[in-house]
Amino acid sequence: MLYILYYTILGLLFACLASFFMVVGARTVQNQSFIMGRSHCDHCQRPIPPLALIPILGYLLSNGRCQSCQHSIPIKYPICEAYFAIFSLILFMTFSLSESVFYIIYFAILTIMAASDWSDQWIPDRFQVLLLLFVIGQFSLNPSGRILTHSLFAVGICLLFILLNFRFTNGIGGGDIKTITILALALGPYQTAWLLFVATSFILCHIIIDKYRGRPLAKGFPFLPYIFFAYPLIFYIL
Ligand SMILES: [Zn+2]
């Protein structure tokens, strides 16, 4: 019984953190402070009532609409909050404490980056630097022979995507290439291959669903949200 209460509180904490990370990512690309200023409706700009700010539950209680203007709130918010909370909890329960902390921090940085990419199709360099510093920190704490393989692979994949970017001008963006290179350095060839495969499969599913619903094909997809969704799954595929 006590375990259920413990994991419920932990899950709620992860959902709150996800909500905060989404705010950090979205506000940073809009040059707004993520510490000062109340959360407001993107449509009418009025402050969101405290009850509606509760992760996941707030969305359900307000019927997915702003209480002031009744404009719909994007469903990506409760989905990302629930996704982050569930998979962080699973990572926490599956791996050792030190391993799970590392994986969850990666997941947190990816959540911030996904929110930025979603909001403005742009990922500020400071997040790439944060991710890189974290990867370097991880290798410093756990030095191993893998670093050479991972580094060579990261350089290779970076060059490959740069070449693809020259060939397909509307293809993958510079921010995506930097993020994938850093993730390749952290994860190595096998996990990165799976990460890209799962993420691109999600994009393909999105295109098929849009086509099925008769929606016009989007000119470009923000790639980081798909990396965010693919990231925790690779630990269970491999
Ligand atoms: Zn509103």
UniProtKB/TrEMBL annotation:
Swiss-Prot/TrEMBL keywords: Cell membrane, Membrane, Transmembrane, Transmembrane helix
Protein name per Swiss-Prot or TrEMBL: Prepilin peptidase
Residues covered by the Prepilin type IV endopeptidase peptidase domain: 104-205
Membrane topology: Multi-pass membrane protein
GO cellular component, one term: plasma membrane
InterPro entries: Prepilin_IV_endopep_pep (IPR000045), Prepilin_pept_A24_N (IPR010627), Prepilin_peptidase/N-MTase (IPR050882)
Domain of life: Bacteria
Gene Ontology terms describing biological process: signal peptide processing
Domain Prepilin peptidase A24 N-terminal, chain residue ranges per copy: 15-95
Matching Pfam families: A24_N_bact, Peptidase_A24
Primary localisation category: membrane
Sequence intervals crossing the membrane: 6-26, 125-141, 147-168, 180-209, 221-237
